[in-house]
Predict the structure.
Amino acid sequence: MIRKYVFGNPVTTGAVVRDLPPESGAVPFFALSRDGKKVILTLALQPDEVLFGLGESVRGINKRGFRYRSWNSDVFNHTESTESLYASHNLLVFFSASRLFGVYLDDPGLVTWDLGYTRADTAFITSENGDLDLYVLEDASLTDLARSFRRLTGRSYLPPRWAFGYIQSRWGYASEKDILAVVSEHRKRHIPLDAVCMDIDYMVDFRNFTWKPDAFPDLKGFSEKLKADHLRLVPIIDAGIPVAPGYPPYDTGKEAGLFCRKEDGSDFIAAVWPGRCVFPDFLREDARTWFGDLYRPLLDAGIEGFWNDMNEPALFYSDEGLAEAFSRVEELRGGQVEYEAMWWLKDAFNGIANNMEDYRRFYHRVGDAVLRHDRVHNLYGACMTRASAEGFRRYDPSRRFLLFSRSSFIGAHRDGGVWQGDNFSWWSHLKMALQMLPNLNLCGFLYSGCDLGGFGCNVTEDLLERFLQLGVFTPLMRNHSALHTRDQEIYRFPSWEIMRDTVTVRYALLPFLYSEFMKAALADGMYFRPLAFDYPEDQRAVRTEDQVMLGEGCMIAPVLEQNASGRYVYLPEDMLMIRFRSASDYDLIPLDKGDHRIDLALNEFPLFVKKNHPVLLCPGGESSETLDDRHFTVLCRMDRRVDFCLYRDDGLNPDPDPGRGLARIALDTSLLSSSPIPGVAISDVLL
Ligand code: MIG
């Protein structure tokens, strides 16, 4: 059951696709109060209550015990104390022995989630705007609730199948030559690879939709040449458009009046990579259409995938902010800079980026309404994603394009995936990435993954290897790193072979993982889930923070610690452990329900599988297009006949029929008699 309550005068965000009549009675579960225009929902938490949701946010899978703020932020430096990340996903599910319900705030402004922070036993949820649609969801199970929420907000984005291949990225690849070197190092060593990202260095002066003519003299020819080798280019696009008369996107956008404006009607200007920029008013349909069509030259050059960046929007500084900082400094010039003035001086420039004052300086025009940006801040990136997706659909409605964005809001899960933003080469960020994934899925973002190896800071070999072991299972499997950090491509390291072997596991599993993903997406389900969804009665499982369910029958439990030679794993039921070293080298070990210490050398990582749920391995390949997805080795711990459906399609059809494309596989218990491992069937299947 879903109930909707309307407060004030909400902005239409497009997050919800079902039109529900608003209720007139009191909101269940919560006490409601107001502070000025703020709406505050208060709830006494049950002692055993566990909270899931908030998609991209720091800390545990269970969100209880911290304060989070929905306010999309460019936070390269995030830590456990960071209240806002790049995205805002305002769904929270309350789960305890006595109740199960979810609350969703369709509110694009600042929302604070005080979940046991001010008082350990109380949740306070505050909408700063006070204008919102509030939804309360009740269902019999967590799984049902997640599905109801997806039906409310729409089906998840479907990426093309090649987007499940390994992607190499680095800020700094600046030419065909750089990219070819990356490609040839992978191909030469048989490290599978499907795509290479192009970061801002491919552009002329960081201007969107341009590319350096010297570095990419024939982009179309280049992309075709790569495609012949089953490789794709994935360029970045930023939100800002440089103020540069003569640069067509500026001229055409200016002419049509499509940029965000200040109160006085002039364009809002702030610096980002290309220098002083204007910002497309993505909330407007005409601006989205205009922007979506700007991708055409790149699409014409054969590009089939993009990543959208800086769309919180990130602002280095505004004209006003810069002027203010200088005037503060001027005031102090020549005087004594003592204790307090010193901090003041420092902060004059420190606080200049992504400044709240700047977010209050500009406006969006939607229909007749003029909305100050801070009221709708969290919608900006989502509307950019929508602009791109609509542009791709207009360009070629017959195929899927790869698209992943840094900033997002629920609703954008229909149009694209997300990467988890700038992380660091930290073990703690490896764990954080794992913990975010089930909550991102709950909020609809199935196609996601983190910067494997870490974006900022210098990675070490063991950390990259452990990141890749997580990445084997994340839909987006991309190694990405920042300019000036240590080189992070697999081939840079003496132990590249074990990393390559890890990537081969991804390719052996690719048809199976793709199938699990598509089945989840098409049925409004989740690819990653907290264990609580499968084992709601099991208190250990409900509170497990370092293991995650995958697809219908699997569970992952990556090594998250430096120098570990293994880890403890909790099995909520009897499972089969597949301990991988490579696509062709793995152990099959049936394990009983309970606690296990698992040895996992640096090159080993496990996949746990429920009984009577098969895992399919194909012989692999070096790209998603060349792998052999007809011959499989099927692995299954079983105690009855098993019927399984593998979902397959051309990987491009934008509107697949979930009922078709299912290859049926039947496993009979007679297979067990010939197996070297008691209770585990190992069978070759030809589809
Ligand atoms: O201010 O394009 O998150 O992935 O490499 C940094 C350069 C801008 C931030 C993205 C990151 C990308 C980087 N960008």
